[in-house]
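Hi R.,

Here's the chain you asked about this morning:
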Amino acid sequence: MSAFTAVVQVRLREGVLDPEAQTTQQALERLGFEIEDLRAADLFELDLTATDPDAAAEQADAMARRLLANPTVHDYEIDVTPNE
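And here is the predicted structure, written out as tokens:
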């Protein structure tokens, strides 16, 4: 078994209202920043023990599907790296 870190990034699907991002974008624009669009995301770093990176990704995917993301309104991405 090896140690891995799985990073799960969860964001709202395209077309789903994102009031946090809208508020942040408006505040940035009031500060003089010009941006086309802004999306808020949650980032989860999971330290896991698994036999290989694929097994660690499967564990992280199960966690995302069961708790970290709502598949109705969220998309998520998983990136796994070995811990040294």
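One quick note: Residues 4 and 82 are 4 Å apart (CA to CA).

Cheers,
M.
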